[in-house]
Amino acid sequence: MILMAVAIMAVFASCQKVSTPKATFNASDKIDSLSYTMGLAQSQGLKDYMVNRLGVDTTYMADFVQGILAGATGKVNPKQTARQSGMQIGQQVAEQIIPGVSREAFGDDSTKVLSLKNFLAGFIAGTTEKGMLMPQAEAQQTAQRLMDEFHKESLMAEYGDNMKAGEAFMDSIAKTPDVVKTESGLCYKVITQGKGKVPAKTDRVKVNYRGTLIDGTEFDSSYKRNEPSTFRANQVISGWTEALTMMPVGSHWMLYIPQDLAYGERNQGTIKPFSTLIFDVEVLDIVE
Predict the structure, then answer these.
(1) Kind and range of the H or E element at 63?
(2) Are 207 and 222 in contact (CB under 8 A)?
(3) For 42-82, how does the pLDDT look when each residue is reduced to its tens digit (9 = 90+)?
(4) CA–CA separation, 236 vs 219, rounded Å?
(5) End-to-end C-alpha distance for the chain, whole angstroms
């Protein structure tokens, strides 16, 4: 693969005409035999790679061969090498970078795509270090901020109803008798108040639990696995951490966790972005 990569990088290195070498294959000369057979072996798959990955038109196979010869023999045209390197990077910009960043920023909204003109203006200014409208460090910070904003807008367009439904649910639950609402927005209802030690954030706790969405869809249950779960109190979503550090061992509570104390904008499969969660939790023990 190393030899193949070297050959590929030299494909368009020069337009100079170089005579194609002829093998002086001599079975009695082990070096000549190794040289020819190794070259032949290393060429396996190169043509397919050239066509399918590099997009080379086989009509220009002779030019491809001349490029290999020029690169391998050191007869490289620096101007041509620079131009071809730029073409390869430009293709990556058009075929990979622009579509990839657009998907990350705008999700499935195909009506939005990065401006190729503006992207190239910034890309070339940064590469040549000429005409930059701002320092590159500032550009990185601005780009990240804008990416985050567009990503949030995209998620809100698709999953904003989850947030609205969750907020309405939490407002309703907070008014339910025996439900306590904390300053963070977490709501809980005590079914059984334990008499054991209250876990610290760094304690490992053994719990049984069942988790559902506000529509009743179950997404996890240690009861169904017939095996309690053990983890540190600060290694779970923040709503759980807050609750666990208030629940004495032996407690059984219902937890109502708003999306910002759960997984927020993260997509967790059944748990879609901005989902409010309900947990039936029993703290069984603190594991030493």
Answers:
(1) helix 61-72
(2) yes
(3) 888 888 888 888 888 888 888 888 888 888 888 878 888 88
(4) 16
(5) 52
Using DSSP, state whether 208 is helix, strand or coil.
strand
Range of the domain at 283: 169-287
Sign (positive or negative) of CA dihedral 201, 205, 207, 210: positive
Residue pair 241/279 in contact (Cβ under 8 Å)? The answer is no
- Does 277 fall in a domain? yes
Instruction: Return the number of other C-beta atoms located less than 10 Å from residue 48's C-beta.
Output: 9
For residue 177, give the CATH number of its domain: 3.10.50.40
Instruction: Show which of 27, 54, 76 is a domain's final residue.
Output: 76
Domain membership of residue 37 (yes or no) is: yes
pLDDT tens track for 226-273: 999 999 999 999 999 999 999 999 999 999 999 999 999 999 999 999
257 & 186 share domain: yes
In degrees and rounded to multiples of 5, residue 101 shows phi and psi of -65, -40
**What's the CA gap between 273 and 146, in Å, rounded?**
20
Task: With residue 210 as reference, give the H or E element that holds it.
Answer: strand 204-213
Query: What is the pTM (predicted TM-score) of this model?
Result: 0.66
